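Re: the 282-residue chain
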Amino acid sequence: MLILQTVDELKGWVQEAKRAGHTIGLVPTMGFLHEGHLSLVEKAKAENDKVVMSIFVNPAQFGPNEDFDRYPRNLERDQQLAKGAGTDVIFAPGVEEMYPRESQIKISAGAQAEVLCGAKRPGHFDGVLKVVTKLFHLAEADLAYFGQKDAQQLAIIESLVADFNFPMAIRRGETVREEDGLAKSSRNVYLSSAERNEAPHLKKALEMGRALVLQGQDPIEPMTQYLSEHTSGKVDYIELLDYPTLTAVIQNDAILALAVQFEKARLIDNIIFQPKGELDHA
């Protein structure tokens, strides 16, 4: 496995891989890897000749007073896990390498970023699109892999690729969970032991909400009450939307998503499903 840290190194490797006729799968990450990331590598390995994983904590997607400085980092551990999963190349640039000058061109995520996490994190998804656009071009990926836990991010990136005719496709990876149902996340390390015991109730609330939707009921208030009773966290949002458009009127698939703020960790989770019949959710 190669460890590349500069744009020129990555571009040189990509040129050689393309000359050899190899397809490239890209797994963008911010590091501190867990089984969710590794499952994406395994999927990429099965569908491509070569797998590139990027490890870059992207400052462009962090707002003021967010956790950029304390975001967990352990490159040596990440290298071992990535190698074990079959990664061919890790691209781990520094901030100055990725952003050598102030960007003159801005990318706006649009209406899909105005709900769910985007409503409380203005500019976050603009920063996500900035870094993935650079990574897609640098890696010249045939396929790129993103997990459904970050479902809003996934939907917005799918729109980017479709709207601007990127010569590639996005592959979705299912949310990987702990045995008790908690979605794997690098930020889970921020939870206290008591909060960690409470955290599986996020998935239980989603399952309860899905059952209510399928019965034709609005799940928001019952889910909010359930989380208030079973966790010490503060409910940031619970929303039921069409997926992947993230609009209010559900046409086909629906996403039931939530965010809960604990003392040092903001956890998100969701389930994507197809409601029975037609729903008109406002």
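The first strand starts at residue 2 and ends at 4.
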